[in-house]
Amino acid sequence: MSESSFVLTAELQQAVSSFFQRIPFNQVLGIELGELSSEQVTMHLPMKPELIGNFVHGILHGGVISSLLDVCGGAMALIGAFANHQNLPSSERLMRLSKLGTIDLRIDYLRPGRGQRFTATALPLRSGNKVAVVRMELHSDDGTLVAVGTGTYLCG
User: The pTM is what?
Assistant: First the structure.
């Protein structure tokens, strides 16, 4: 993060959580929030029949993998934007944060998504005033690395 002294307070964690929970698609997928900090975001996804992409082998759909990594990366970018805009008046900060969106997303699928619960993590690579770059990983419940991604987000 560009602001090493930034602390994600309980109030800001609640704001990020509220932002996340307002997106109906996140609820449809069943994404659960894990860790929210200025260094890392973690999210979990329990497997359910509606998320299967290969019905013969019961493998997680690639679109679900991509979506989960994008949501996790977006949350990390949002936290970085909070840090970068913490000194702005509340109304201006909210206006800038409302523009958060994915500019570019690259996903590398490394192995089939087999398991009952998946964990996505996001780490900031760069958090600027207008653009954030985030690195994401998806692991299955046995620790297998399923996919990695890099997301670029408009954040102000």
Answer: 0.90
